[in-house]
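Render this sequence as a predicted structure.
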Amino acid sequence: MPFSILFSPQKHTYNAMNNKNIPQVHNFVVHKIVNCAIKVVSLQTKRLFFDMKKRAFIYGVAVDGNNFTDRVAETRRLKNDFENGQNVILISNRRIGKTSLVKHVCSQVDTDLINVVNMDIYDCRSEYDFYNKFATSILKQTAQKSDMILQNIKDFLVRLSPKISFSPDVSNEISVSLGITPKEYSAEEILQLPELIAQKNGKRIVVCIDEFQQIGEFADSITIQKKMRGIWQLQKHVSYCLFGSKKHLLLNLFQNKRMPFYQFGDTIFLSTIPTADWIPFIKNKFAEKQISISDLLIEQLCNIVCNHSSYVQQLAWNVMLNAEKEVTEETLDEALNDMLNQNSAMFYQQTEGLSGYQINFIKALIGGVEKDFTSQKVLSEYNLGTKSNIARIVTLLTNRELIEKTTNGKIVFSDPLFPLWFKREF
Protein backbone atom coordinates (compact mmCIF):
# COMPACT_ATOMS: atom_id res chain seq x y z
CA MET A 1 0.00 0.00 0.00
CA PRO A 2 2.04 3.03 -1.18
CA PHE A 3 1.44 6.34 0.54
CA SER A 4 3.48 9.50 0.90
CA ILE A 5 4.55 11.31 4.03
CA LEU A 6 5.66 14.89 3.32
CA PHE A 7 8.25 16.16 5.77
CA SER A 8 8.05 19.89 5.10
CA PRO A 9 11.52 20.94 6.36
CA GLN A 10 13.24 18.34 4.17
CA LYS A 11 14.24 18.52 0.52
CA HIS A 12 12.57 15.28 -0.38
CA THR A 13 9.38 13.29 -0.23
CA TYR A 14 9.65 10.10 1.78
CA ASN A 15 7.87 7.01 0.55
CA ALA A 16 7.09 4.92 3.62
CA MET A 17 6.73 1.64 1.76
CA ASN A 18 9.87 1.43 -0.37
CA ASN A 19 12.25 3.66 1.66
CA LYS A 20 13.23 5.71 -1.39
CA ASN A 21 14.15 9.39 -1.16
CA ILE A 22 12.83 11.28 -4.17
CA PRO A 23 14.33 14.75 -4.74
CA GLN A 24 11.70 17.46 -4.72
CA VAL A 25 13.49 20.84 -4.90
CA HIS A 26 10.37 22.73 -5.90
CA ASN A 27 8.36 21.09 -3.14
CA PHE A 28 11.04 22.12 -0.64
CA VAL A 29 10.49 25.80 -1.46
CA VAL A 30 6.72 25.46 -1.35
CA HIS A 31 6.85 23.58 1.96
CA LYS A 32 9.14 26.23 3.48
CA ILE A 33 6.68 28.96 2.53
CA VAL A 34 3.75 26.96 3.84
CA ASN A 35 5.56 26.23 7.12
CA CYS A 36 6.30 29.93 7.62
CA ALA A 37 2.62 30.68 7.10
CA ILE A 38 1.64 27.91 9.51
CA LYS A 39 3.93 29.33 12.20
CA VAL A 40 2.43 32.80 11.80
CA VAL A 41 -1.10 31.42 11.99
CA SER A 42 -0.13 29.29 14.99
CA LEU A 43 1.29 32.33 16.80
CA GLN A 44 -1.82 34.36 16.02
CA THR A 45 -4.01 31.50 17.23
CA LYS A 46 -2.10 31.31 20.52
CA ARG A 47 -2.44 35.07 20.99
CA LEU A 48 -6.15 34.85 20.24
CA PHE A 49 -6.53 31.99 22.72
CA PHE A 50 -4.65 33.98 25.37
CA ASP A 51 -6.83 37.04 24.74
CA MET A 52 -9.96 34.88 24.98
CA LYS A 53 -8.78 33.49 28.30
CA LYS A 54 -8.50 37.06 29.62
CA ARG A 55 -11.88 38.21 28.28
CA ALA A 56 -14.72 38.24 30.78
CA PHE A 57 -17.38 37.19 28.27
CA ILE A 58 -16.88 35.04 25.19
CA TYR A 59 -19.45 34.64 22.41
CA GLY A 60 -19.56 33.38 18.86
CA VAL A 61 -17.34 30.36 19.65
CA ALA A 62 -17.59 27.29 21.86
CA VAL A 63 -16.72 28.04 25.49
CA ASP A 64 -15.39 25.91 28.34
CA GLY A 65 -13.88 26.21 31.79
CA ASN A 66 -14.90 29.33 33.71
CA ASN A 67 -16.78 30.63 30.68
CA PHE A 68 -19.19 27.67 30.74
CA THR A 69 -22.18 28.13 33.05
CA ASP A 70 -25.10 25.98 34.23
CA ARG A 71 -26.29 23.08 32.01
CA VAL A 72 -25.97 20.74 35.01
CA ALA A 73 -28.94 18.54 34.08
CA GLU A 74 -28.06 18.50 30.37
CA THR A 75 -24.42 17.68 31.16
CA ARG A 76 -25.44 14.75 33.35
CA ARG A 77 -27.87 13.38 30.76
CA LEU A 78 -25.47 13.72 27.83
CA LYS A 79 -22.58 12.21 29.80
CA ASN A 80 -24.77 9.23 30.72
CA ASP A 81 -25.71 8.80 27.07
CA PHE A 82 -22.05 8.86 26.03
CA GLU A 83 -21.01 6.40 28.71
CA ASN A 84 -23.85 3.98 27.97
CA GLY A 85 -23.54 3.92 24.19
CA GLN A 86 -26.79 5.79 23.52
CA ASN A 87 -27.15 7.75 20.28
CA VAL A 88 -28.07 11.39 20.92
CA ILE A 89 -29.78 14.13 18.92
CA LEU A 90 -29.25 17.71 20.15
CA ILE A 91 -31.76 20.27 18.88
CA SER A 92 -32.07 23.97 19.71
CA ASN A 93 -32.00 27.41 18.19
CA ARG A 94 -28.69 28.73 16.90
CA ARG A 95 -26.00 29.85 19.34
CA ILE A 96 -27.75 28.49 22.42
CA GLY A 97 -24.66 26.46 23.36
CA LYS A 98 -24.90 23.00 21.75
CA THR A 99 -21.24 22.89 20.71
CA SER A 100 -20.11 24.21 24.11
CA LEU A 101 -22.19 21.56 25.90
CA VAL A 102 -20.77 18.73 23.78
CA LYS A 103 -17.24 20.04 24.29
CA HIS A 104 -17.85 20.31 28.05
CA VAL A 105 -19.16 16.73 28.28
CA CYS A 106 -16.29 15.39 26.14
CA SER A 107 -13.85 16.82 28.70
CA GLN A 108 -15.56 14.85 31.48
CA VAL A 109 -15.79 11.33 30.01
CA ASP A 110 -13.28 8.66 31.02
CA THR A 111 -10.82 8.59 28.12
CA ASP A 112 -9.53 5.18 29.25
CA LEU A 113 -12.90 3.70 28.34
CA ILE A 114 -14.24 6.04 25.64
CA ASN A 115 -12.65 7.71 22.64
CA VAL A 116 -14.59 10.83 21.57
CA VAL A 117 -14.30 11.98 17.95
CA ASN A 118 -15.48 15.49 17.00
CA MET A 119 -16.09 16.75 13.48
CA ASP A 120 -17.84 19.69 11.82
CA ILE A 121 -19.25 18.90 8.37
CA TYR A 122 -20.40 22.41 7.44
CA ASP A 123 -18.00 22.48 4.47
CA CYS A 124 -19.12 19.09 3.11
CA ARG A 125 -21.08 19.50 -0.12
CA SER A 126 -21.37 15.91 -1.31
CA GLU A 127 -21.58 12.33 -0.07
CA TYR A 128 -17.87 11.62 -0.55
CA ASP A 129 -16.90 14.99 0.94
CA PHE A 130 -18.54 13.65 4.07
CA TYR A 131 -16.88 10.22 3.88
CA ASN A 132 -13.45 11.83 3.57
CA LYS A 133 -14.10 14.11 6.56
CA PHE A 134 -15.62 11.21 8.51
CA ALA A 135 -12.72 8.79 7.88
CA THR A 136 -10.03 11.43 8.43
CA SER A 137 -11.53 12.52 11.75
CA ILE A 138 -11.89 8.91 12.93
CA LEU A 139 -8.30 8.02 12.00
CA LYS A 140 -6.72 11.13 13.56
CA GLN A 141 -8.72 11.26 16.78
CA THR A 142 -8.58 7.56 17.67
CA ALA A 143 -4.78 7.42 17.39
CA GLN A 144 -2.44 8.65 20.11
CA LYS A 145 0.60 8.64 17.83
CA SER A 146 1.17 9.25 14.13
CA ASP A 147 2.33 5.68 13.55
CA MET A 148 -1.05 4.46 14.81
CA ILE A 149 -2.74 6.51 12.08
CA LEU A 150 -0.53 4.87 9.48
CA GLN A 151 -1.17 1.41 10.91
CA ASN A 152 -4.95 1.92 10.88
CA ILE A 153 -4.77 3.04 7.25
CA LYS A 154 -2.83 -0.13 6.43
CA ASP A 155 -5.30 -2.28 8.36
CA PHE A 156 -8.59 -0.79 7.19
CA LEU A 157 -8.01 1.37 4.11
CA VAL A 158 -5.38 -0.64 2.31
CA ARG A 159 -6.49 0.38 -1.21
CA LEU A 160 -5.78 4.11 -0.59
CA SER A 161 -2.63 6.14 -1.26
CA PRO A 162 -3.04 8.94 1.29
CA LYS A 163 -0.61 11.74 2.12
CA ILE A 164 0.32 12.43 5.73
CA SER A 165 1.99 15.81 6.23
CA PHE A 166 4.00 16.66 9.34
CA SER A 167 5.16 20.05 10.59
CA PRO A 168 8.13 20.77 12.87
CA ASP A 169 5.79 22.86 15.02
CA VAL A 170 4.48 20.37 17.61
CA SER A 171 1.40 22.54 18.21
CA ASN A 172 0.15 21.90 14.67
CA GLU A 173 -1.91 18.84 13.85
CA ILE A 174 -0.87 16.16 11.40
CA SER A 175 -2.51 16.75 8.04
CA VAL A 176 -4.16 13.69 6.51
CA SER A 177 -5.43 13.65 2.94
CA LEU A 178 -7.18 10.40 2.06
CA GLY A 179 -8.74 11.11 -1.31
CA ILE A 180 -11.47 8.49 -0.95
CA THR A 181 -13.60 7.95 -4.07
CA PRO A 182 -16.26 5.34 -4.92
CA LYS A 183 -13.62 3.44 -6.92
CA GLU A 184 -11.58 2.64 -3.80
CA TYR A 185 -14.23 2.21 -1.12
CA SER A 186 -17.98 1.92 -0.88
CA ALA A 187 -20.00 4.06 1.50
CA GLU A 188 -20.70 1.02 3.66
CA GLU A 189 -16.99 0.31 4.15
CA ILE A 190 -16.25 3.88 5.28
CA LEU A 191 -19.25 4.06 7.61
CA GLN A 192 -18.11 0.83 9.28
CA LEU A 193 -14.61 2.22 9.99
CA PRO A 194 -15.19 3.44 13.60
CA GLU A 195 -16.67 0.08 14.60
CA LEU A 196 -13.62 -1.76 13.26
CA ILE A 197 -11.19 0.59 15.03
CA ALA A 198 -13.19 0.38 18.29
CA GLN A 199 -13.00 -3.41 18.20
CA LYS A 200 -9.27 -3.30 17.49
CA ASN A 201 -8.51 -0.79 20.28
CA GLY A 202 -10.85 -2.35 22.81
CA LYS A 203 -12.33 1.07 23.53
CA ARG A 204 -15.80 2.43 22.74
CA ILE A 205 -16.07 5.41 20.37
CA VAL A 206 -18.51 8.33 20.49
CA VAL A 207 -18.70 10.22 17.18
CA CYS A 208 -19.97 13.81 17.53
CA ILE A 209 -21.02 15.41 14.23
CA ASP A 210 -21.77 19.15 14.16
CA GLU A 211 -23.79 20.77 11.35
CA PHE A 212 -25.38 17.41 10.61
CA GLN A 213 -28.21 19.12 8.70
CA GLN A 214 -25.77 19.37 5.75
CA ILE A 215 -26.57 15.70 5.04
CA GLY A 216 -30.02 16.81 3.90
CA GLU A 217 -28.47 19.05 1.23
CA PHE A 218 -26.58 16.24 -0.54
CA ALA A 219 -27.78 14.87 -3.87
CA ASP A 220 -29.94 11.77 -3.31
CA SER A 221 -29.90 12.57 0.42
CA ILE A 222 -32.56 10.04 1.46
CA THR A 223 -30.55 7.14 0.03
CA ILE A 224 -27.43 8.38 1.83
CA GLN A 225 -29.32 8.70 5.12
CA LYS A 226 -30.66 5.16 4.74
CA LYS A 227 -27.10 3.84 4.30
CA MET A 228 -25.90 5.70 7.38
CA ARG A 229 -28.70 4.61 9.66
CA GLY A 230 -28.67 1.05 8.36
CA ILE A 231 -25.01 0.64 9.35
CA TRP A 232 -24.77 2.87 12.42
CA GLN A 233 -27.75 1.32 14.23
CA LEU A 234 -26.08 -2.11 14.13
CA GLN A 235 -22.73 -1.01 15.54
CA LYS A 236 -22.07 -2.38 19.04
CA HIS A 237 -19.04 -0.32 20.04
CA VAL A 238 -19.88 3.09 18.54
CA SER A 239 -22.54 5.68 19.31
CA TYR A 240 -23.31 9.02 17.68
CA CYS A 241 -24.14 12.54 18.85
CA LEU A 242 -25.71 14.51 16.00
CA PHE A 243 -26.47 18.24 16.13
CA GLY A 244 -26.34 21.43 14.07
CA SER A 245 -27.26 25.09 13.72
CA LYS A 246 -30.44 24.95 11.60
CA LYS A 247 -33.27 23.84 13.83
CA HIS A 248 -36.00 23.52 11.18
CA LEU A 249 -33.82 21.25 9.04
CA LEU A 250 -32.81 19.09 12.01
CA LEU A 251 -36.45 18.74 13.07
CA ASN A 252 -37.26 17.45 9.59
CA LEU A 253 -34.37 14.95 9.71
CA PHE A 254 -35.14 13.54 13.16
CA GLN A 255 -38.82 14.23 13.90
CA ASN A 256 -40.35 13.41 10.53
CA LYS A 257 -41.68 9.83 10.55
CA ARG A 258 -40.89 9.43 6.86
CA MET A 259 -37.18 10.20 7.29
CA PRO A 260 -34.53 7.48 7.86
CA PHE A 261 -33.16 9.07 11.07
CA TYR A 262 -36.57 9.28 12.77
CA GLN A 263 -36.16 8.35 16.47
CA PHE A 264 -32.50 7.49 15.94
CA GLY A 265 -31.56 8.29 19.54
CA ASP A 266 -32.19 10.22 22.74
CA THR A 267 -33.48 13.61 21.55
CA ILE A 268 -32.47 16.51 23.79
CA PHE A 269 -34.14 19.86 23.16
CA LEU A 270 -31.73 22.42 24.56
CA SER A 271 -33.51 25.39 26.13
CA THR A 272 -32.13 28.71 27.33
CA ILE A 273 -30.25 29.09 30.62
CA PRO A 274 -32.52 30.55 33.36
CA THR A 275 -31.90 34.12 34.54
CA ALA A 276 -31.29 32.87 38.08
CA ASP A 277 -28.18 31.05 36.81
CA TRP A 278 -26.99 33.99 34.72
CA ILE A 279 -27.11 36.49 37.61
CA PRO A 280 -24.22 35.09 39.73
CA PHE A 281 -22.17 34.28 36.61
CA ILE A 282 -22.43 37.84 35.22
CA LYS A 283 -22.14 39.50 38.63
CA ASN A 284 -18.86 37.67 39.37
CA LYS A 285 -17.40 38.58 35.99
CA PHE A 286 -18.11 42.28 36.59
CA ALA A 287 -16.76 42.06 40.14
CA GLU A 288 -13.47 40.72 38.77
CA LYS A 289 -13.19 43.97 36.79
CA GLN A 290 -14.22 46.02 39.85
CA ILE A 291 -17.48 47.12 38.21
CA SER A 292 -20.76 46.90 40.11
CA ILE A 293 -23.97 45.78 38.43
CA SER A 294 -27.29 45.17 40.16
CA ASP A 295 -29.29 41.95 39.95
CA LEU A 296 -32.15 43.98 38.44
CA LEU A 297 -30.00 45.20 35.54
CA ILE A 298 -28.68 41.68 34.90
CA GLU A 299 -32.28 40.50 34.80
CA GLN A 300 -33.12 43.25 32.31
CA LEU A 301 -30.09 42.31 30.23
CA CYS A 302 -31.21 38.66 30.07
CA ASN A 303 -34.82 39.60 29.29
CA ILE A 304 -33.79 41.85 26.39
CA VAL A 305 -32.26 38.91 24.53
CA CYS A 306 -34.62 36.24 25.92
CA ASN A 307 -31.74 34.50 27.76
CA HIS A 308 -30.13 33.57 24.44
CA SER A 309 -26.68 32.34 25.53
CA SER A 310 -24.52 33.97 22.87
CA TYR A 311 -26.42 37.25 23.02
CA VAL A 312 -26.33 37.36 26.83
CA GLN A 313 -22.54 37.11 26.69
CA GLN A 314 -22.27 39.63 23.84
CA LEU A 315 -24.52 42.17 25.52
CA ALA A 316 -22.76 41.70 28.87
CA TRP A 317 -19.42 42.28 27.15
CA ASN A 318 -20.73 45.46 25.49
CA VAL A 319 -22.03 46.67 28.85
CA MET A 320 -18.63 46.05 30.44
CA LEU A 321 -16.92 48.00 27.66
CA ASN A 322 -19.26 50.97 28.18
CA ALA A 323 -19.20 50.91 31.99
CA GLU A 324 -16.75 52.61 34.33
CA LYS A 325 -17.38 51.84 37.99
CA GLU A 326 -21.11 51.13 37.96
CA VAL A 327 -23.58 49.90 35.35
CA THR A 328 -26.65 52.10 34.81
CA GLU A 329 -29.70 51.78 32.57
CA GLU A 330 -28.03 54.27 30.21
CA THR A 331 -25.03 51.94 30.00
CA LEU A 332 -27.31 49.04 29.11
CA ASP A 333 -29.11 51.10 26.45
CA GLU A 334 -25.80 52.13 24.86
CA ALA A 335 -24.57 48.54 24.89
CA LEU A 336 -27.78 47.29 23.24
CA ASN A 337 -27.53 49.93 20.52
CA ASP A 338 -23.92 48.86 19.89
CA MET A 339 -25.02 45.24 19.65
CA LEU A 340 -27.78 46.04 17.15
CA ASN A 341 -25.18 47.81 15.02
CA GLN A 342 -22.82 44.83 15.29
CA ASN A 343 -25.51 42.46 13.98
CA SER A 344 -27.07 44.87 11.50
CA ALA A 345 -25.30 43.51 8.40
CA MET A 346 -26.57 39.98 9.11
CA PHE A 347 -30.17 41.19 9.55
CA TYR A 348 -30.04 43.32 6.41
CA GLN A 349 -28.92 40.25 4.49
CA GLN A 350 -31.78 38.17 5.92
CA THR A 351 -34.40 40.78 4.98
CA GLU A 352 -32.96 41.63 1.56
CA GLY A 353 -35.48 41.04 -1.20
CA LEU A 354 -38.48 40.46 1.09
CA SER A 355 -41.80 41.46 -0.46
CA GLY A 356 -44.21 43.97 1.05
CA TYR A 357 -46.44 41.12 2.27
CA GLN A 358 -43.49 39.41 3.97
CA ILE A 359 -42.42 42.66 5.67
CA ASN A 360 -46.02 43.19 6.79
CA PHE A 361 -46.09 39.66 8.24
CA ILE A 362 -43.05 40.52 10.36
CA LYS A 363 -44.79 43.71 11.49
CA ALA A 364 -47.84 41.67 12.48
CA LEU A 365 -45.66 39.32 14.52
CA ILE A 366 -44.01 42.29 16.25
CA GLY A 367 -47.50 43.70 16.81
CA GLY A 368 -48.36 40.70 18.95
CA VAL A 369 -50.02 38.35 16.45
CA GLU A 370 -48.84 34.77 17.02
CA LYS A 371 -51.53 32.71 15.29
CA ASP A 372 -54.72 33.10 13.26
CA PHE A 373 -52.88 35.00 10.54
CA THR A 374 -55.53 33.88 8.05
CA SER A 375 -58.35 35.62 9.94
CA GLN A 376 -59.95 38.44 7.98
CA LYS A 377 -59.15 40.90 10.76
CA VAL A 378 -55.38 40.20 10.68
CA LEU A 379 -55.24 39.98 6.87
CA SER A 380 -56.92 43.36 6.57
CA GLU A 381 -55.15 45.18 9.42
CA TYR A 382 -51.66 44.23 8.26
CA ASN A 383 -52.31 43.99 4.49
CA LEU A 384 -51.16 40.38 4.13
CA GLY A 385 -53.04 39.56 0.94
CA THR A 386 -55.12 36.39 0.63
CA LYS A 387 -55.35 33.45 3.02
CA SER A 388 -53.38 31.25 0.64
CA ASN A 389 -50.54 33.78 0.74
CA ILE A 390 -49.84 33.12 4.43
CA ALA A 391 -48.48 29.58 3.94
CA ARG A 392 -45.98 30.82 1.33
CA ILE A 393 -44.87 33.67 3.59
CA VAL A 394 -44.35 31.34 6.56
CA THR A 395 -42.34 28.86 4.46
CA LEU A 396 -40.04 31.57 3.07
CA LEU A 397 -39.43 33.28 6.43
CA THR A 398 -38.81 29.89 8.07
CA ASN A 399 -36.26 28.95 5.42
CA ARG A 400 -34.52 32.27 6.05
CA GLU A 401 -34.42 31.35 9.74
CA LEU A 402 -36.36 34.46 10.72
CA ILE A 403 -39.34 32.67 12.27
CA GLU A 404 -40.27 29.23 13.62
CA LYS A 405 -43.30 27.39 14.93
CA THR A 406 -43.55 26.39 18.58
CA THR A 407 -45.01 23.07 19.71
CA ASN A 408 -48.33 24.78 20.50
CA GLY A 409 -48.63 26.22 16.99
CA LYS A 410 -47.52 29.77 17.69
CA ILE A 411 -45.17 31.55 15.30
CA VAL A 412 -42.24 33.31 16.96
CA PHE A 413 -38.99 34.95 15.91
CA SER A 414 -36.01 32.58 15.72
CA ASP A 415 -33.60 35.32 16.77
CA PRO A 416 -34.58 37.44 19.81
CA LEU A 417 -32.46 40.38 18.63
CA PHE A 418 -34.06 40.58 15.19
CA PRO A 419 -37.40 42.21 16.21
CA LEU A 420 -35.49 44.87 18.19
CA TRP A 421 -33.40 45.67 15.12
CA PHE A 422 -36.44 45.53 12.80
CA LYS A 423 -38.41 48.01 14.92
CA ARG A 424 -35.43 50.39 14.86
CA GLU A 425 -34.92 50.14 11.09
CA PHE A 426 -38.49 49.83 9.82
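Summary. Residues 1-50 have pLDDT under 50 and may be disordered. The longest strand covers residues 114-120.
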